[in-house]
UniProtKB/TrEMBL annotation:
It comes from the Bacteria. Residues 83-145 are annotated as: Disordered. Residues 135-145 have a biased composition (Pro residues). It comes from Paracoccus caeni. This is DUF4177 domain-containing protein.
Amino acid sequence: MRYEYTAIAAPNRGEKAKDAKTPTDRYALSLTAELNRMAADGWEYVRADVLPSEERSGLTSRTTVYHNLLVFRRELAAATLTAPAPQPEYPVAASPARAPEPSPATPAAAAPQKAEDPAINAARPQPESQGEATPPAPRVPPSND
């Protein structure tokens, strides 16, 4: 038989009731109500545990706090007893990766042109003067005189 378990925090204080006069009676009534609530959902009470928990206290220090827990179990349904599907070693993204989309065809006007192609060189406008271009004048920093 396979079980699933759950743990809940035990009640911290008792509930007021007509028949519960002492604090112990009030606490017992509160605990009974919690056990009955879980039993209505199919949970079977197993035990109560007091477990330590390290919590922050201030900015830099830590303290140990003890929590009272109630442990419950219930049988797993027959449908869930089948072998679980193997889990991947690493988490998988929420949506599957899409295949890359092909890039659209580049228009001929925007396509890069080869300089060696004589048809392109003939269609390209030629500069007015075929002579050597004069380089720009050198920059001279301003003087502080």
